[in-house]
């Protein structure tokens, strides 16, 4: 296994992972992310428990969601869908950059040993495939619990307003009917 940070040949060809230049941070293979995204990825995924989420988020940052949605790792047709057409293959250099950065993150931030890193890196392609599948599902993105609560509060308020409006309309109709009845009585007594 080639640990890119410790490999002297790597550093002569590319800057080291984590090197910052003009508000961009190097993640490997000459691929750069905005430093803000780089730092967010590190902060949002503090341990190996988040390995799959780290790779999924990283792949979205590197490729973009639209490219991921319309691509596959191999470029072959989907096995689960009959008569599916082949998709574009993901850029190999960017895929290697994701692998480099994932190895770096596992070693530097999660403090894993070489055997553990090999185990996690072996799952990397499946993590990316899962992200692609997630993007291609026809479902709307899940709402957060806070958003659902917010929506239900708004719905309650809306229903109360509707009920209040209906009551006002009924009261107006009743008042109009009473006035009409009084008017009719007044006309009859004349």
Automatic annotation (TrEMBL):
Biased composition range(s): Acidic residues: 162-173, 181-190
Q: What is this protein called?
A: BEN domain-containing protein
Q: For bias kind Basic and acidic residues, which ranges apply?
A: 142-161
Q: Where is this region: Disordered?
A: 142-190
Q: Name one GO molecular function term.
A: DNA binding
Provide one Gene Ontology biological process annotation: negative regulation of DNA-templated transcription
What's a Pfam family in this record? BEN
**Which InterPro entries does the record cross-reference, listed alphabetically?**
BEN_domain, BEND5
Q: Which domain of life is it from?
A: Eukaryota
PROSITE patterns membership: BEN (PS51457)
Q: Where is the BEN domain?
A: 28-139
């Amino acid at each position: 296994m080639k640990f890119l940070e410790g490999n002297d040949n790597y550093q002569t060809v590319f800057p080291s992972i984590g090197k910052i230049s003009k508000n961009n941070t190097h993640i490997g293979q000459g691929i750069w992310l905005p430093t803000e995204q780089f730092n967010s990825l590190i902060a949002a995924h503090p341990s190996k428990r988040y390995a799959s989420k780290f790779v999924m988020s990283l792949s979205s940052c590197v490729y973009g969601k639209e490219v991921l949605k319309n691509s596959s790792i191999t470029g072959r047709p989907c096995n689960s869908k009959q008569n599916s057409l082949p998709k574009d293959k993901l850029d190999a250099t960017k895929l290697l950059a994701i692998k480099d950065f994932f190895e770096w993150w596992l070693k530097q931030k999660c403090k894993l040993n070489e055997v553990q890193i090999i185990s996690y890196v072996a799952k990397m392609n499946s993590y990316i495939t899962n992200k692609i599948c997630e993007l291609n599902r026809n479902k709307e993105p899940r709402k957060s619990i806070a958003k659902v609560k917010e929506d239900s509060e708004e719905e309650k308020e809306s229903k109360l307003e509707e009920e209040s409006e209906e009551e006002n309309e009924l009261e107006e109709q009743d008042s109009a009917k009473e006035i009409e009845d009084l008017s009719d009585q007044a006309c009859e007594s004349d």
